[in-house]
Design brief:
single chain; Immunoglobulin-like; 7-stranded mixed sheet; 4 helices; 33 strands; 4% helix; 41% strand; globular; binds CU-O-CU linkage; binds copper (II) ion
Length: 464
């Protein structure tokens, strides 16, 4: 079994200096639309002597351009598809109008090669979000089709200089240093923990170094864009507090109650750091910490600055007493219990599994069925109990809504768990989440380990 502790390329790396915000932003057309082109780009991911990789990127940059708007503003993006296969963009974590959610085959037709599609929606919540391809995501996201989407507060809580976006990815490189394309779609990954990379980058750079000012308060926006890797991160090791999870601020900056914290695929974590001693962001799941971003504090640059408090976003509280309750039994994968699995209305047997690539199921159904897993009226509260009867961890994502975890493993946990759009569930664990289904349309619920989603861990519900 591939351990998620594998991070091969670690030795001998010069750190790249990376001061301030060097993320690209997209050009705006005369009609106010940002032009985003999905296309293939040859790029050296690894060092200069290595082979170039055939990446698929937005505007030829990794990560894609940072899209930044103010809360309540309209995001207007014209996607041009220069790929040789259909694509679409999903705006992860945005409580968005359904027809703009970007799910190929559910909320829109995929955008064909050579065609364009205009996305236009209001960003209702300030916070840290991201966008990524949502057609064959296991392939398109692994090749680089993702970027940050930052929604600023009415008056941004931090000045731009002190507000750093860190998009983290793990690429799988082959021996020659180029992106390993041959292993894309391997059923071995699909039936196990998903596709893990062996080369970590932050904003497309391996082990970058940031310069901070002494005494200055910074916001670090961590976005996990990896296909399947969970990062174990302990903010206490460098005295950081949590400002927000998955875009939604905590009532006040908080020291984490336990460690390490898990940053699962698609999850975000905003940290508050005050420039003091030098530190590194480290991935802690292995035997020894793996530092992947370095922060040097310039003691000459003395500053003292307060930041503005992050106000809560207007997310309705679920009514737990009158909520509609649904249960999902997750099965499949390597070392998993076999259950009768239906795919496209047909019971799978023997050779069907490798042929269709369907290896996981929710309540015995692999991938999207014709009918929704459940339907509710708009405004109804939903309690969803998820039982993980598999041997793996998963990162479960609800489209179009934020929820609170209200129960984990049968034990009621404290009130006021943070709003999230993606939660982690361990093997043999059960988790209950609650939310108000206040957003009309067809919404996905899937594992954000993208191979798991492709291999069956994907369903949808309807809000009428
Ligand atoms: Cu970022 Cu369907 O997800
Ligand atoms: Cu999964």
């Amino acid at each position: 079994m591939i351990s998620r502790r594998n991070l091969l390329v670690s030795a001998g790396f010069a750190t790249a200096a990376f001061a301030g915000r060097s993320l690209f932003s997209a050009a705006r057309a005369e009609d106010g639309f940002l032009e985003i082109t999905a296309g293939s780009t040859s790029k050296k991911l690894y060092h200069e002597d290595a082979e170039a990789s055939d990446l698929w990127l937005y505007n030829a940059s990794t990560p894609g351009p940072e899209i930044r708007v103010k809360v309540g503003e309209r995001v207007k993006v014209r996607l041009k598809n220069n790929l040789e296969e259909p694509t679409s963009i999903h705006w992860h974590g945005i409580r968005i109008a359904n027809d703009m959610d970007g799910v190929s085959g559910l909320t829109q037709e995929p955008v064909q090669p050579g065609e364009t599609f205009e996305y236009e929606f209001v960003a209702p919540d300030a916070g840290t979000y991201w966008y990524h391809a949502h057609n064959k995501s296991w392939n398109q996201v692994a090749r680089g089709l993702y970027g940050p989407l930052i929604v600023d507060e009415e008056t941004p809580a931090f000045d731009p200089e002190y507000d750093l976006t860190l998009v983290i990815d793990d690429w799988r490189l082959s021996q020659d240093g180029s992106l390993d394309l041959a292993s894309l779609g391997h059923l071995m990954d699909w039936s196990h923990g998903g596709r893990f990379g062996n080369y970590l980058t932050v904003n497309g750079i391996s082990r970058p170094e940031f310069e901070l000012k002494h005494g200055q308060a910074y916001r670090l926006r961590l976005i996990n864009a990896a296909n399947a890797r969970i990062f174990d991160i302990d903010p206490q090791r460098f005295g950081a507090k949590i400002l927000a999870y998955d875009g939604q601020p905590l009532p006040a900056p908080e020291a984490p109650a336990y460690s390490p914290l898990l940053l699962a695929p698609a999850q975000r974590m905003d940290l508050l750091v005050i420039g003091g001693d030098d530190f590194a962001l480290e991935e802690l799941s292995g035997d020894t910490p793996y530092p992947f971003a370095f922060f040097k504090v310039n003691k000459q640059m003395q500053t003292q600055r307060e930041f503005r408090k992050l106000a809560p976003n207007p997310i309705p509280e679920p009514d737990l007493i009158n909520a509609k309750k649904f249960e999902i039994d997750m099965t499949g994968g390597a070392m998993g219990r076999m259950v009768e699995t239906v795919y496209n209305g047909k019971v799978l047997t023997g050779e069907d599994f490798p042929k269709t690539g369907q290896l996981w199921a929710f309540n015995g159904v692999a991938n999207l069925a014709k009918d929704p897993f459940f339907s509710v009226e708009r405004g109804e509260s939903v309690v969803l109990k998820v039982v993980n009867n598999t041997a793996f961890m998963h990162a479960m994502h609800v489209h179009g809504h934020h929820f609170r975890v209200i129960e984990r493993e049968g034990a009621t946990i404290d009130d006021g768990q943070p709003w999230r759009d993606t939660f982690v569930i361990g093997p043999d664990q059960s988790v209950e989440i609650a939310f108000v289904a206040d957003n009309k349309g067809k919404w996905l619920f899937h594992c954000h380990m993208l191979e798991h989603a492709a291999a069956g861990m994907n369903t949808w519900f309807e809000v009428a």
